[in-house]
Amino acid sequence: MKWGLFKRKQAYYPADRYSKDYIKEMLQVTGKYEVSRIPAIFELLLTSSNELKVRAAKVLHAYVQSLNILELSKLDNLFRERTSLDWAYDWKTESPENLLTTDMTEEMRVMILGLCSFHPNGYFREKALHLLDQHDSGKELTYLLIRCNDWVIEVRDTARKYVERRLKHSYVKNIVNNLPLLFKLKNTNRNDNSKVFEQVVHILSQKESFPFLDEGTKSNFGKIRYFCYKMIISSKVYDKELLFNYLKLEKEPHLRLLLFNELINDISVDEFKLYYPTLEKDKFPMIRAKVLEKYYSFFPDESIKELEKALLDKNGTIRSIARFILSKQNKFDFASYYIRMLKTDQFLRGAILGLGEVGKKDHVEMIIPYLDNSDVSIVKAAIRSISLLDVENHKAELVGLLGHKHEGISKTARKSLSTVYDKDLKDQLYSLYTETHYKHTKYNIALLLSSLSKWYAIIYIIEFYVNEEESEISRLGKANFNNWIVNFNRTFDLPTKNQIVSIKNTLLKYGNKLEKSDVKEIEFCIKGFQ
């Protein structure tokens, strides 16, 4: 009897032993692709059935298509981590070609050979590389690059040899699409890939390559856009207008910053004037801050109006920079400016936040009315300003806002209270916890009560832990309970008699809902203080 794929004494290939239900489950795609399933689906190729091979290949192809190239490179580790007993066969004598069928498309064949190059067996990986080298669609380049960092030197050298064959203009599109892998390879310590990287830089620095880099800046994968920008900048095949157009289209803030830094470098006054209306409105605060500083350096005498406008910016860093620059020019009364803007009812959010940053306790009374504003952003700004100016004397207002119907307002109030509240507020907070119908209010109060000092907190933590109606609060309680036990011996404050009594009463009330081991842990912790 001849075995085409596995020369061993088993009667069936591994996948031939799998049940129909298991195969159906593995090949069924529901919703988001689960990358961790790929090695298991790959094993379905180990079958005598060409029909099953094709079915498995189609599903694998769909999975791989959903990955960007860095995610694909992580499959290399996943294949080794998820190996089963089926990997124990004598792969050294087998060929990856036996996993293919004539019914598979060229793209599927490259994909399967690529996955074969992730195999734990070095001989099998190397055979997969030889077969990949027979393809020239460019899709094979990704898998060859991944193997350039193989832990076996023979496999590494083979992969690098095949990669170097493809470092030519006909492969520029594929080289661009693999730039994240090439830069990653450049920084690996396992092997010196500087020669490969230098060849890539040389190819992409040529004028003929620019259209492919330009196309790469439109990629959905941010890493490809990033490295295309880097290559365009390093090759100097650009002008300011090109960078500006890229910046306008780029959605990722840190990629815009890369473009902006190059754009602003050696920029002329006329160019800056041309781009300023767009740059000053950039959503990334770091860019707006640099634009403001550049504006002041170009037009110090004309910058007062722009700096005053920046005093009301939605970002605190911009407001701070504007105040710093204005303070160098003249004696500017910032508090009076913000109060004046409050009275005009314009730019309220920036004015409230600004007053909180530069004002005094006396100014709180001007801010309190805005806690009742219908605009959520105004209320949150008022909370932040009060917390900066005099939160100690306005805890009652903030506790009340914990019960606000809007989740964001309740959360902001909780953050402000977390810096000052103490055990004196616990009864008021717990009362609100039991009365409110808002889940977000309960959760925010649970966070506050759980962060009380050690012996006060555990009373509430146990109650939250056994909460069967609110799963989020129960999870929070469980996490805090475990942390309390783990960190018990890190603090040495002693419980009062009343606290011990309260803990005992809490165990009597909720102990039947706790694990017996949890009850014993608490009983052990209080044993020495009774």
Structural features, described:
- The chain has 530 residues and is mainly α.
- Among the domains are: 1-166, no CATH class; 453-530, no CATH class.
- Helix content is 63%, strand content 0%.
- Helix 13 (222-235) runs parallel beside helix 15, helix 17 runs parallel beside helix 19 (316-329) and helix 18 (304-310) runs antiparallel to helix 19.
Write a brief caption for the model.
The protein has 530 residues and is mainly alpha-helical. It contains 31 helices and no strands. Among the domains are: 1-166, no CATH class; 453-530, no CATH class.
How much beta, percentage-wise? under 5%
Uncertain ranges: 1-11
State the share of residues found in helices, binned by percent. 55-70%
Structural classification: mainly alpha
Largest sheet: none
Radius of gyration over all CA atoms, rounded: 32 Å
The backbone outline, from C-alpha atoms, is flat
Distance between the termini: 79 Å
